[in-house]
Model the fold of this input.
Amino acid sequence: MRRVVHAAAAAILLLCLTGCSNEPPNPNPRAGEPLATVPVDLPRYMGTWYIIANIPYFAERDMVGSRAEWKLRPDGKIDDSYYGRKKRFDAPEKHYQFLDTPVPGKEGGEWSVQLFWPVRVTQLTLYVDPDYHYTILGYPGKNLGWIFSREPDMSEATYRSLLHRLDAMGYDTSRFRRVPQRPDQLGTEGFASPGGGD
Done:
């Protein structure tokens, strides 16, 4: 019985990750073009990344102050920790733990992410700047995406330039939501208001 429940939960999760959405079809004329990964220096890529903006999946909705922490293991896999708070900065911090495996032959740019056994999804590194200060992560169907930064703040010019890159890749950039990283950003222009849309 337990296996049946786990299988059903896994099927629902996969459906939600791959298309369980009320969003209209992607209007970008390049929507059908495949995403291309970039080579990644994995040791340099490790550490803390703040989530500046995303097309959130259900576990990320209404989160503030969210970040990812990656640690390269001796076996070449990556301990992937997600942290965030629900709606308020004084809410208890939530933590999700994943295990990522770089896909052979992809130069570190494609990871197989184990959400929980046996569910795996594909995560693509679509851009990383030369100094490894900013990175863009994507999902093959372009229904999920993330803009990460080593710092919790990002200039508007940098943010716009990264959105421009996503647009050129075929993303519907109107679906990206900026994630508040400080209490004073909550509900301000351009930032998501947790629990209340934009």
